[in-house]
């Protein structure tokens, strides 16, 4: 009788422990979903703020630029299940053989059997599912007047417009960093928006002109390398030439200021010197 009583006591203890573990894991599932959702919402709000700044950006035939960010459908289903339907999948989260990341991966596979997971382990997949960035898919769109909004793909934009689109987004991101730093430090800072573009000789004159227009509109400075095909209408073009005099190497720098009368806000530099 005493042995049976001890077994009943042990069984009750294990039952209570299992119940507590189930509640803990249920809370963990909901907590993970809530944290991911809040983080995703925060990043979506940041994208909206970037889009507000991009509304006034125009250059070449591009009238405006915007970012579209959405939650992937398969990941949205996972979040919904973690938040509201986790009880149906407690066989995964109650298993002592699986970590939370592995259980999360198994649940994702169960909800999306059509998706090929490749050779990745459940642990790796689960860790990726805990990273909010993997839940988002983003597209860049440009407005070209009568053409409406188009995806910013290589075939839809000229080379200059494609580079300008990326640069405009970069500038908006830098500007958001400046505002965040200003808010955290409680003091104003002088922005230094200096961008560099290499291999500019691959661009034609129209593409270069598009970039100059963007720089002027966004009040930033652009340093371009190797612009043999750039006429110094704006900014200052520097020519660097290596020369050897008395067995000593010298670099001669000649600057030619642009002849356009209005003030220049962009600069270009080149290095057409021979390669060693």
UniProtKB/TrEMBL annotation:
Gene Ontology cellular component annotations, sorted alphabetically: cytoplasm
Q: Give GO BP annotations, semicolon-separated.
A: chromosome condensation; chromosome segregation
Which terms are listed as keywords in the entry?
Chromosome partition, Coiled coil, Cytoplasm, DNA condensation, DNA-binding
Q: Which residues form a coiled coil?
A: 4-53
Annotated InterPro entries: MukB/SMC
Q: Does the keyword Lyase apply?
A: no
Pfam families linked: SbcC_Walker_B
Molecular-function annotations in GO = DNA binding
Annotated protein name in UniProt? Structural maintenance of chromosome-related protein
Q: Which organism is it from?
A: Tatumella ptyseos
The gene behind this protein is mukB_2
